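[09:14] KT: can someone run the structure on this one? pasting the chain below
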Amino acid sequence: MNIPNALTMLRICLIPVLVLVFYLPFRNHLLVAAVIFAVAAITDWLDGYLARRLGQTSAFGAFLDPVADKLMVSVALVLLVERHDTILFTLAACVIIGREIVISALREWMAELGERTSVAVSYIGKVKTAFQMVAITGLLAVDPSRDGNWLTALLFVVLYIAAALTLWSMFVYLKAAWIVIRERDKTF
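[09:31] RB: done, structure tokens below
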């Protein structure tokens, strides 16, 4: 166990804490839930940075880090869909979660073909993640029944932009994979 892997494990351990805090009826529980999610989002960046900086990359970390990210985002979106039960919000959440499943399967399959680097994280994927983390953190913090509607509306827009970037990045990954697949099919 090294520092980056410990941060990844912390992110996974924060998931049930996030759910519990989200539902417990104490003062500022939504703000505390947002802080928990923000801490998890920061550890997502920090564990990768430290793994490279300290030379502590590992096969376990390469496996667990994306799993922790997808679990945290998916659980947070499910919590938010309950609170913001509109078709547009639900579709955005489904797009984000669905893309994560598709890209995870694609990366696994490309790794089996020895072509994992052809579906490495792209710049658009990083931008998508930033929009997603900001939107989810903000939406966890605001209570639409008490907080100003302008803030919730702005955060919805940020989440919808994240969903659009999610689709765009998915197509970038699929296009890269398609090139590899076509080349392999020509050889058989």
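[09:33] KT: thanks! The chain has a mean pLDDT of 89.
[09:34] RB: yep, looked fine to me
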